[in-house]
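Subject: design request, 139 residues
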C-alpha cells in the first residue's frame, strides 16, 4: 500500500480526524472538526483528503456492545453516503471502546480535562485507524 488513509471518528458535535503514513503502518491524529452541517463538513473532509492526496476514508462505526447497529451507526452511515457522493471511497471499522482507549492514553499523559476534551476525538480516530491497520497486517 502506498496511499494514505484518512480516518474519521464521526460524532454529532465533532469529527476526529487521523491519517496513516503512506505505507499504512502508523496512524497519527490530525485535527478535530467542529460540525456545522453536512455540506460544509463534507467540504472540510474533502479538503483534508486533497491535502493528503487520497480519497480513501476509514470511518469508525459506533456499534452497540452486542455488535448490532443502532441509531448512531445509522447517522454515521448517512453522513458517509454524502462523502461517497463527493467521490470518497469509504470503509467502516468497529469503533467500540476507541474513545475509552483515547481517554486513557490522554490521562496517562497527565492532560487536564479541558485539554483532553479538545484532543480526544482525533486521538480516538487514530486508535480506530491503528486497529484497522494492525488487523490488515495480521490478516
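Subject: RE: design request

Done. Sequence follows.
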Amino acid at each position: 500500500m502506498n496511499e494514505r488513509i484518512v480516518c474519521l471518528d464521526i460524532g454529532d458535535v465533532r469529527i476526529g480526524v487521523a491519517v496513516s503514513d503512506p505505507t499504512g503502518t502508523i496512524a497519527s491524529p490530525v485535527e478535530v472538526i467542529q460540525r456545522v452541517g453536512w455540506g460544509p463538513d463534507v467540504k472540510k473532509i474533502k479538503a483534508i483528503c486533497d491535502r493528503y492526496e487520497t480519497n480513501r476514508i476509514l470511518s469508525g462505526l459506533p456499534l452497540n456492545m452486542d455488535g448490532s447497529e443502532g441509531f448512531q451507526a445509522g447517522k454515521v452511515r448517512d453522513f458517509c453516503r454524502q462523502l461517497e457522493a463527493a467521490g470518497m471511497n469509504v470503509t467502516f471499522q468497529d469503533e467500540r471502546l476507541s474513545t475509552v482507549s483515547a481517554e486513557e492514553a490522554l490521562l496517562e499523559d497527565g492532560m487536564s480535562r479541558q485539554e483532553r476534551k479538545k484532543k480526544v476525538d482525533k486521538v480516538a480516530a487514530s486508535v480506530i485507524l491503528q486497529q484497522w491497520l494492525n488487523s490488515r497486517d495480521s490478516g
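The chain has four helices and five strands.
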